[in-house]
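Input structure tokens:
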């Protein structure tokens, strides 16, 4: 059923500031890339799209954090984002943050909570 949470995958191996989990969501009738990362012991998920231009953030598959492991970084523009809010912190994102996705972690599994735009 479309209104039920959708299993994305196992996030029990996600560590703070470590490699993220890539997945796809349906947005406006098409499949688009998304990702989840763990930061400050909580999992956060966003569309995998820079706030500046529609380019994927990760510099290697699943690598979203900068070297300090404190910020998400766009591999193309160097824009920095807060991992817990997706807010633009500097660079070419020019105040445009990441688009968050509603997810829940239950027993090491990540579930996407559908809304009118994704499923």
């Amino acid at each position: 059923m479309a209104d039920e949470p959708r299993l994305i995958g196992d996030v029990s191996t996600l560590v703070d500031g470590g490699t993220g989990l890539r997945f796809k969501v349906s947005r406006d009738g098409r499949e688009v890339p998304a990702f989840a990362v763990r930061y400050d012991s909580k999992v956060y998920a966003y569309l995998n799209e820079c706030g500046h231009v529609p380019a994927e953030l990760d510099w290697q598959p699943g690598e979203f954090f900068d070297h300090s492991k404190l910020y998400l970084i766009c591999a193309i523009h160097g824009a920095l984002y807060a991992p817990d809010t997706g807010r633009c912190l500097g660079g070419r994102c020019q105040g445009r943050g990441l688009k968050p996705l509603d997810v829940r972690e239950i027993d090491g599994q990540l579930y996407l909570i559908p809304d009118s735009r994704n499923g």
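The chain has one domain: 6-112. The chain has a mean pLDDT of 90.
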